[in-house]
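Re: How this chain folds, sequence and tokenised backbone to follow
Notation: Tokens come from a learned vocabulary of local backbone shapes, not from coordinates.
Start of record: The labelled sequence and token lines come straight after this line.
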Amino acid sequence: MKHRWLVVFFAIALPLNLFAQTEQGPYARIAVLRPNDGKTVDFESGYIRHLEWHRQAKDSWDWYGWNIWAGERQRWFVYATFGHTAASLDNPVNPIEDERDTIINVIPYCQFVENGLYEFLPQLSRGTGQPQSMPRVEFTTITLKPDLEKNFENALAAQQSKLQGETLWYRMLAGGTTPRYVRLRPRQSLSEIIDGKNQQGFDDQINNMIEKITIEILNLKPTMSYSVVTPSK
């Protein structure tokens, strides 16, 4: 009986986020930062210092960091975290100190452009809600015409079995103009993205639902990523 009470005591005493973050869920945060003109080196150094704060705080989340290599937002920075439950999003590691360190090491060197909350859509995807950490990612953002979410998702689901290679779809829940979707296609190389360009487009049924589509290519920045995010072989 004594040992059983000790187990209960330690279960209650442990921080809630240690439990929440070990669970896999469908939610992701994807954000975009624009380094200030002439401050790219300072920004990258400051962001790496901020990741060291996460390491010292024993953050259990994974943080991906990518540079936009091809697109109108070239050299902007995308960071993201995947695989969360709603409970884990409510329990980030030490948010007050996290914000304090961000103000010191990151904010002086960049502008915060986007910060979106997304839900992974496994019925449309090939792969899990957490992308493989490949050197390149084809990053597609789609804004739909109004009231077509159900039709759009049904059309993609009907073609899910034809997907080749990791293809991950996410629906935006908050953080910008909706209805918006993001598709990630992690790949080993630029040539692999180019060779797979026939898998990039959509048929007329889907194209007619789309208001705007943007395709960018991201480069993984291992030094600006945290935890288990390492380039896949």
Observations:
- The helical segments are 2-13, 16-20, 40-56, 86-89, 95-105, 149-158, 190-195, 204-207.
- Residues 134 and 188 are 5 Å apart (CA to CA).
